[in-house]
Amino acid sequence: DKLRRMVRTFRVKMVLLGSSGVGKSSLALRFGKDEFRSASPTVGCAFLTRVVHLSDVTLRFEIWDTAGQEKYHSVTPLYYRGAHAALLVYDISRRETFIRAQLWLKELKKHSIPGSIVIWLVGNKGDLAEARQVPVEEGQALASDTELFFTETSALSGDQVSDLLLGIAHRVYECIG
Ligand code: GDP
Ligand code: MG
């Protein structure tokens, strides 16, 4: 079994998109190292890697974080190029980031071949229940209208983060496997 896994390894490029401050870098850090830092983390390199084992394949995730270009809405097409998965992140406590997620989606669709990329809508900061501005039903509705997958997460507590990565791994494998 171990031998088969070694033979069947895929590289998976995953990109994080969304407004500044929604928690992209924090999620990347959770995925890559299962850590949280309260000071805004900079990944400091092109991407973090994380290996995920499924029953008959190993996926080596390259998790790409922006270097803050999203502030100027100037994420380069090179960032999306060849991506197998994209996380469209918003902050459940800031409605404008949810509106913006819909613009990011258009942008992403312009630059990717339909069916070749797994797109996941992610409502982050699920721990901020008191400050919630986007009901979970709204996230679900947007996802089903635009045929995306959907999860709410908390990079702070780690809630749903590993399930999300596993979910993405399964969908990506369905696409490329
Ligand atoms: P980015 O600009 O999208 O990369 O966002 P960052 O990862 O830099 O996070 C922006 C701020 O939100 C930082 O102060 C983080 O500590 C905080 N943050 C990130 N994720 C969460 C979360 O799940 N819950 C809470 N309460 N704060 C978070
Ligand atoms: Mg960041």
From TrEMBL:
Q: Which residues form a coiled coil?
A: none
Q: Does the keyword Nucleotide-binding apply?
A: yes
GO molecular function terms attached to this record: GTP binding; GTPase activity
List keywords of the entry alphabetically. GTP-binding, Nucleotide-binding
Q: What start and end residues bound the annotated signal peptide?
A: none
Q: Which domain of life is it from?
A: Eukaryota
Transmembrane among the record's keywords? no
Family assignment?
A: Belongs to the small GTPase superfamily. Rab family.
What is the name of this protein? Ras-related protein Rab-17-like
Query: What organism does the UniProt record list as the source?
Result: Betta splendens
Q: Which part of the full protein is shown?
A: 17 to 193 of 227
